[in-house]
Design brief:
This protein has 3 helices and 22 strands. It is an alpha+beta fold and about 350 residues long. The protein folds into 3 domains: about 30-45 and about 270-340, Beta Barrel (conserved putative lor/sdh protein from methanococcus maripaludis s2 fold); about 45-90 and about 155-265, Beta Barrel (Elongation Factor Tu (Ef-tu), domain 3); about 90-155, Helix hairpin bin (Helix Hairpins, Orthogonal Bundle). The strands form 4 sheets. Strands 1, 16, 17, 18, 21 and 22 form a 6-stranded mixed β-sheet that branches. Strand 17 and strand 18 (about 295-300) form a beta hairpin. Helix 2 (about 95-120) packs antiparallel against helix 3 (about 125-150).
């Protein structure tokens, strides 16, 4: 009886296999279960992403041009000041005295020139003497302009409208030439320097709209435009430098903030397929196109931009063709495929 048990088990196993073969054969004839999608043409625009640090559209350090003692101070920290507004006045008494001397010297030189003109008309002096006095007048005028400029250097005016920064200056403080007093930032508009790969150059132009987001205001998008496109590519990074201008009329942005940028390129009509339809072999990209007989054929395609789960197809496909969406990992060229049932795992 022991020798008959193995043969009985073998007979049962063979019987079960024969019962399963028709089902297996039918499954093979139907093909590999996949999901299909149609190659379609639609409006497509590519989003480019970058990040950078904000700067005020106009920004400067306010420094002294001469040494002097502060006699008047108009520096409200964090407040808005207008262009040309007097911010700091240094003691300029000595400079004004030199200016007054220059004015007196010029008036005397001009009076002497009038007298020399009369003498020359009476032929009492030579032409060379008259020309020499004319030169004295010109020198006196030049000296007056120099003294006027010197007096102006004792006054610090706002070069443009903006917000004043923090300072430590007080009336009576003695400052050296070149001393930093405070900062001035015009933040009504912000600028941001960033870079993109050189391959995006055909998509870029000045005026291209973008949106910026900051972690300080995560729910708010700040609108802006590309204001400058670099004239040179960085040979090390192969990146193109750009600059954008952002509207900050609400005053929410600050210089030094890190923001992320999204640039929306011009829309165009393009053929698209799901990105998961793509297969890769080295640098080669391909999709499986399914013909009318249900045979999957591997076809090499040229891929353009991608946006989310959609890939732009530049060549290799035609609108209306059926390609495999899910299930490409199970395929090879020439396999028969079938559309998976709604509840069937692919």
């Amino acid at each position: 009886m022991n020798t008959r048990h193995p043969s009985l088990l073998l007979q049962l196993w063979l019987t079960g296999l024969l019962l399963l073969l028709p089902g297996l054969s039918l499954h093979a004839q139907q093909g590999v279960a996949v999901t299909l999608t149609e190659v379609r043409q639609q409006t497509f625009s590519q989003q480019l992403h970058a990040s950078g640090t904000l700067r005020a559209w106009q920004s400067t350090d306010l420094r002294t041009q001469v040494s002097g003692r502060i006699v008047a101070l108009h520096l409200p920290e964090g407040e808005w000041v207008e262009q040309g507004q007097l911010l700091v006045q240094l003691d300029d008494r000595e400079a004004r005295a030199r200016l007054q001397q220059a004015e007196i010297h010029l008036r005397e030189a001009e009076r002497q020139l009038q007298r020399f003109n009369q003498l020359h008309q009476n032929q009492s002096i030579s032409r060379d003497q008259l020309d020499a006095q004319q030169a004295n007048v010109e020198n006196a005028r030049a000296q007056l302009l120099a003294n006027q400029a010197e007096v102006e250097r004792y006054r610090i005016l706002a070069p443009f409208s903006g917000f004043l920064g923090q300072h430590q200056a007080t009336p009576g403080m003695l400052l050296d030439s070149g001393s930093l007093i405070t900062t001035l930032d015009d933040t009504r508009q912000m600028r941001i320097d960033f870079a993109l790969s050189e391959r995006h150059l055909p998509l870029l132009h000045t005026g291209l709209e973008l949106q910026a987001r900051s972690s300080s205001w995560p729910e708010q998008a700040f609108k802006g435009q590309v204001s400058f496109i670099g004239t040179r590519i960085d040979p090390t990074t192969r990146n193109l430098p750009l600059q954008a201008r952002l509207d900050n009329s609400a005053g929410l942005l600050r210089p030094g903030m890190l923001v992320t940028l999204t640039l929306e390129t011009a829309s165009r009509q393009a053929l698209v397929v799901p990105t998961r339809s793509l297969t890769f072999r080295g640098q080669e990209k391909a999709v499986f196109v399914v013909n009318e007989q249900g045979i999957a054929q591997r076809r090499i395609v040229e891929v353009g931009a991608t946006r989310g789960e959609q890939a732009e197809i530049l060549s290799g496909l035609k609108a209306g063709e059926q390609v495999v969406d899910q299930g490409v990992v199970k395929l090879r060229d020439g396999l028969r495929v079938r559309a998976a049932a709604p509840d069937e795992q692919v």
